[in-house]
Amino acid sequence: MIEDLINLADELDKLGLAEASDDIDQIIKEAAKKKSKSKKRTPTNKALWSRALAEAKKKFKVFPSAYSSGFAVQWYKKHGGGWRGPKPMK
Questions:
Q1: pLDDT in tens, 45-69
Q2: Pick from 33, 38, 47, 70: CA 20 to 30 A from residue 23's CA?
Q3: What is the Cβ-side half-sphere exposure of residue 17, based on CA atoms within 13 angstroms?
Q4: End-to-end CA, the chain
């Protein structure tokens, strides 16, 4: 779909309709911004999250696993870590 918009903008440029082409370029840029945003929750304190993962790796033989990941999340929250991004739906 974006490729079609790029082709349309090129055709409009060839016809001398630069203003319309610029509008389409703006739409493409906005779509790219929205598409590039991650929908995952990310830790706010990267260093603390790294420590939490290290603690989980020490405690469990198998990493990653559901148990070790859950442990890392709980350890991270307990030590003051937070998350940024959209909240998970229940």
A1: 999 999 999 999 999 999 899 999 9
A2: 38
A3: 11
A4: 32
pTM, two decimals, is: 0.56
Which range marks the domain in which residue 18 is found? 2-36
List pLDDT tens digits, range 8-36: 677 777 777 777 777 777 777 777 766 65
Is 90 a domain residue?
A: no
The residues, any chain, with a CB within 8 Å of residue 7's CB and separated by 6 or more, are none
47 and 68, same domain (yes or no): yes
Task: Tell me, yes or no, whether 89 lies in a domain.
Answer: no
Check residue 51 and report its DSSP letter.
H
47 with 32, same domain? no
Q: State how many domains the chain has.
A: 2
